[in-house]
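Preliminary data (for renewal application), pyrazine-2-carboxylic acid complex.
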Amino acid sequence: MEALIIVDVQNDFLPGGALAVPEGDAVVPVINRIAREFDLVVATQDWHPAGHESFASQHAGKSPGDVIDLHGLQQVLWPDHCVEHTPGASFAAGLDVALVHHVVRKGTDRSVDSYSGFFDNGHQNATGLEQYLRDRGVNRVVVCGLATDYCVKFTILDALQLGFEVTLVRDATRGVNLQEGDVDRALEQIYAAGGTILESRDL
Ligand code: VGL
Ligand code: ZN
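Predicted structure:
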């Protein structure tokens, strides 16, 4: 059994949003097209309380892009984004949410970030996504969405570690590229960990 996982296709990650991913909006029509072909579609939603500790605004003298030690974990600081129940946290208006069977919210604990759809960054708490997939007999996941070098990458690496077969749909994802080459390095890491990378036309 196969599932599509749509990662964080939310207004704040689209051009004009608080944490805009370059060309982030380009993934929407591709995802709408491929989602029709899946019997099971799950979407993750970055869903932070106001004052989340991944926000640069919570750390005096710090700016987005700075890296700090946050309770023992290396943490990139971000602009305030995807605050629960705000328009920025809503799914992109163009995303065909009628095709989504289940939504997983992550990043809800103020003190730890959660790039992966499966676990927080400290791997202390599970979101329930693994159990949801196992309960439905899923052994293979196809992943798309935003951002390639953060939430998409960590979702894929966790899925591989959990024993799922994983395919990334390259034209249905875009990255932040905070450092030049981050997206290319993410693709290499995904490939090295056993993931497959395909274009949507080759699915
Ligand atoms: C993401 C940075 C912070 C993502 C979420 O969805 O890739 N990146 N929060
Ligand atoms: Zn976030």
